[in-house]
Amino acid sequence: MPHTEYEFASRTVNSCRRFHWIPSLQRPPCGPRTNVETYEGQHSANKASEVQKRTFGSAATHNQRNPAYSELNSDDVCYFKSILGDNGVVQDEDRIAVANVDWMGKYKGASQLLLLPKSTKEVSKILSYCNTRRLAVVPQGGNTGLVGGSVPVYDEVIVSLAGMDKIISFDNVNGILTSEAGCVLENLSTFVENEGFIMPLDLGAKGSCHIGGNISTNAGGLRFIRYGSLHGNVLGLEVVLADGTILDMLTTLRKDNTGYDLKHLFIGSEGSLGVVTKVAVLTPAKLPATNVAFLSCNDYTSCQKLLLAARRNLGEILSAFEFMDHHCIDLAIRHLEGVQNPLPASQYKFYVLIETTGSDESYDKTKLEAFLLRSMEDGLVSDGVIAQDISQASNFWRIREGISEASVKVGAVYKYDLSIPVEKLYDIVEEMRCRLGDNAEVLGYGHLGDGNLHLNILSSKYDDSHKEEASVQSMVWA
Amino acid sequence: MPHTEYEFASRTVNSCRRFHWIPSLQRPPCGPRTNVETYEGQHSANKASEVQKRTFGSAATHNQRNPAYSELNSDDVCYFKSILGDNGVVQDEDRIAVANVDWMGKYKGASQLLLLPKSTKEVSKILSYCNTRRLAVVPQGGNTGLVGGSVPVYDEVIVSLAGMDKIISFDNVNGILTSEAGCVLENLSTFVENEGFIMPLDLGAKGSCHIGGNISTNAGGLRFIRYGSLHGNVLGLEVVLADGTILDMLTTLRKDNTGYDLKHLFIGSEGSLGVVTKVAVLTPAKLPATNVAFLSCNDYTSCQKLLLAARRNLGEILSAFEFMDHHCIDLAIRHLEGVQNPLPASQYKFYVLIETTGSDESYDKTKLEAFLLRSMEDGLVSDGVIAQDISQASNFWRIREGISEASVKVGAVYKYDLSIPVEKLYDIVEEMRCRLGDNAEVLGYGHLGDGNLHLNILSSKYDDSHKEEASVQSMVWA
Q1: Domain containing B46: what range?
Q2: Which of A4, A178, B458, B474 could be disulfide-bonded to B410 (CB atoms 3.0-4.6 Å)?
Q3: Residue A237 dihedral angles phi and psi, to the nearest 5°
Q4: Which residues form the FAD-binding PCMH-type domain (chains A, B) (predicted)?
């Protein structure tokens, strides 16, 4: 399926620990972290312990720059040119402007220097120098994150991994890919697919995001339900620490119990412990048969029951279970060219996209058809359609993947990416809708199979007067 | 399938990094660790930095006890009784004797005290006290490990988790099990199967091993090829550190990117960083259809090609791919009651057990039959048989799982558990056979799909004169 639109699928917030329905669980020792409401800028590899906060909004940066960080001078630039050459040191305003701002145009830094190392040694030299000089650094991958994690807050030096985009090796017996961290996910995907394998993760931003960024943010995405977390799929990493030390954990073995498995600390720590420079990933065998169905449900309970039924009856071929409320569909139809509702006959409250991937086209389709028939008989599904060709399947995916793109067109988007137990997942959407009334449009969609909700609040412009109402945190602690 | 025999599947040694065929990979920062030849006793939670070595053999413990550790006295025993009660403090010689020796009878400690805490708080109090008093501690689960990791080296206090065997909760929508660490794997397995799910790991020792021990040793086992590593399946942990601090990382969310994911440090660190007291595990949906085939191959290359073909053609239903050389089969037939070769017509060099698990019995069987037919036509398989009922399937598994049990009956067993790239996996078996000649019997078997070789060297008794020849390490550095 083509997933060409941008979509944030990298940071998941555990909010359930703060919800009253699991009172027995304590708050994590590291403390909770929210994505949007309060941004804790852990991305400086130089001084992870000093976090900086800023509130969301179009240009809001209320905190002061930490004066302990040095300011860039011409000697620094000379040094960087001496190790990277002129091409690796970017001072051109237009090029830096692109790296200073996130894809949403919501977070904007004021860096004056973009560095493009070509090797791990160069990354090491950069970080070692910046550490000594106390220059703040922000590592940057494809800059596709939607919560400001990949752009500077102030004048940090941007270290882009874009120049480290080489595939190092591929073991086509065991499906083990080793590459540099700056490889674009889609390029890796195309490469391994030609070898008969697939990447264990897939997300809307695949055309731009880097595998190093995927790992640093512990990206989930669309294949999580089938292939699980990167903690299970990343076999090895090479990482450069803030002082320039290179940590070689680049094993390519499926099982490796030697010593402490330190690589996991770097999966999801967002560059705060080091910069990922090389990765070894286990890639599953590519299976030839994909089928996609687009269904409607009358209520959220039916969506949940459908998920359970899909797990039982589609079992080993289930590869995606995405849900969207009707607000998402309406938005996609309004703002995306060529998008139509595959089930236009009536208005439904919820829509579900189910994908199966297996080794036998006709058998899998028969199985999916039987499943849908039974689900309709059981009253879980109101209406449904199975894609008859790749074009139809792409159209179904286009709706699900286009929601982010469509929501940007409205104006301001407050985005939350939440992990909540499935049975309670939609409550927060309804609560938010109730709080905001006509002030904003509230969308709920996401990876239901993973208990992962994308909660988007749309408004014509960013407005701090809505801040309190639109705050997940205020609901949590209320 | 019933897996009732003991089998070690917990520690995997990365030896490939030390083999000449991957010269570009550096040794890991933590240094290599072998399981048997040199034992680095990292299991003392009190002082992880001071490792003790001992060579293998029936009673060989050549190194001195670290005098920095205190000796147990009657005040200590009184204190433990004050927190655990009389039943939680075991001084009975017979009961301690069982906890002092491993299942193989090869490693024997001299502990005088076995503690049986019933709660995390009790574990915390024990470790806090031992830390202050500098009493060495060895945490013990089911004591099913085969390399001496679960028994004392000297007079360490044994802290058994056997009393912490309660299931805390099960989320039967998402398949998330939360339990205490002392639960026996088979009990958990039975429990979740009744709910329509399965444990993501299965191993020969399931009837005795604890889930806490599985996690502390990062057990792989028979379902690894299908469900992957515990790093992907363990959602949360509660751990008590050596000073008694309780670390609550017991999240039950499928996705959780809040803070640093510290739990991974405790998966596979063998109790050296802390004692696992509670676990949350993701359990996959139980699928109704299991098929088992037993095949023979004429050479190792055919086994490899068969694995690749199985990944492609059985794809989503492949749940085990185990291989054994004919020495294993001969041994099992000689020493295990009622075991027969399912393919007696001729002598083959290699045997492969393939298991499929899916949602449709007849379809899966048809698929497996077609696969076998094609593999025979392609010359990969010499002969093969598909189990017609559960009894036959159990018999096939009995051969594979009985190898450990049969090997103990010979006398002395030198056991290695190695991760090696599949294409080179069998070289080391042949090299060992060549070195040892008639002095010992060398068996090669294991989880081919995971690149995990069990290399067993059998001799009538432990004899240090074979030590050098039987050393994997000497081959590695040669």
Answers
A1: 39-160
A2: B458
A3: -140, 150
A4: 107-286
Neighbours of A338 (CB within 10 A): 8
Give domain status of residue B20, yes or no. Answer: no
- Kindly provide the ipTM of the predicted complex, given to two decimals: 0.82
Q: What is the DSSP string of B413-476?
A: EEEEEEE--GGGTTHHHHHHHHHHGGG-EEEEEEEGGGTEEEEEEEESS--GGGTTTT-HHHHH
Domain contains B348: yes
pLDDT, chain A, mean: 84
Residue B461: burial class (beta carbons within 10 Å; 0-12, 13-18, 19+):
exposed
Q: Report, in angstroms and rounded to the nearest whole number, the Rg of chain A calculated over CA atoms.
A: 23
The pLDDT value recorded for residue A32 is 28
* Residue B51 forms contact with A (CB below 8 Å): no
Task: Decide if A3 is inside a domain.
Answer: no
Surface of B (88-117) touching A: CB under 8 A: none
- Position of tokens 């409205």? A410
Q: Under an 8 A CB cutoff, do A451 and B31 touch?
A: no
Residues B236-269: tens digit of each pLDDT: 999 999 999 999 999 888 888 888 999 999 999 9
The amino acid present at B452, given as its one-letter code, is N
Asked if B247's CB is within 8 angstroms of A217's CB, the reply is: no
Q: Is residue B376 part of a domain?
A: yes
Q: Total domain count for chain B? A: 3
CB contact (8 A) between residue A249 and residue B29: yes
- Mean residue pLDDT across chain B: 84
3-state secondary structure of A118: coil
Query: pLDDT band at residue B465, thresholds of 50, 70 and 90?
Result: low
pLDDT tens string B151-192: 999 999 999 999 999 999 999 888 999 999 999 999 999 999
Residues B447 and B301 in one domain: yes
Q: Mind listing the pLDDT tens digit for each residue in B390-408?
A: 999 999 999 998 998 898 8
Spans in chain A with pLDDT lower than 70: 1-62, 464-478
Pull the structure tokens for residue A108.
């904007």
**Residues 418..457 of A with a Cβ closer than 8 Å to B: which?**
419-423, 450-452
Position B474 scores a pLDDT of 53
Cβ-Cβ contacts under 8 Å between A and B: the total is 215
CATH code: domain of residue A77: 3.30.43.10
